[in-house]
Design a protein that fits this description.
alpha/beta, 16% strand
Length: 247
Amino acid sequence: MQPPASTRIALVTDASRGIGAEVAQQLAGPDTHVIMNYREKADRANAIADGIRDVGGHASPVAADIADEAASAAMIEDIAHRFGRLDVLVLASGGLELGAEPGYAMHLNRDAQRRLTRLALPLMPAGAHIVFVTSHQAHFYPNKAVPKGYATIAASKRAGETALYTMRSEFDHKGVHFTVVSGDMIDGTIIVRLLQRRDPELVEARSHAPLPTVSEFAKAIAHAATNPNPSSIVYVGGSDYLAGVPA
């Protein structure tokens, strides 16, 4: 049975951990059903979904490796069958996985994001939202220094953002909003802990002012995904990065 038209259907990728999980929890509610995409951590995704339901929200964990074309297509087909539409697509991802093959980050953060967006777009009505989640280190790449070991991720996320910008005419034709939400290093995340080991001096330099928390960053993403008149880009933290950037 398809949900009422008043229920918002939202798909959040990489939603079993960190920022994606927090976005799912902030989006979910009596009027929003969140589809929580994850790759392999079923127990973790199910626990988060149970927590959402316990407080009156609606959530469905869905396993799919978005870097796998067949898995992405199957997930979107399932959403079409179960819900008939998609009102929100939040594209969160990583790429720092240990032992990843060369090119994995680009495949995940550019190719997979673009493909998933193309698959999802036919389900999205006018007024729907696509939100691409990135970091200042990627958004401003290569014009700003990045921590050691992060250049590959920064380049891939920058390429993913650019690839989605090339689809703006398609979004506009359908009346679908597209927003990029870019954040400074996010306090308490695994990525920050990894980068502290690789390039502690540069990470320390980013900490001259309080870093945004996971909750603060997720709040900005959730707002962009539901705002009827969203900005094309939202910056969270990192005032030094934004010096000279048009408002």
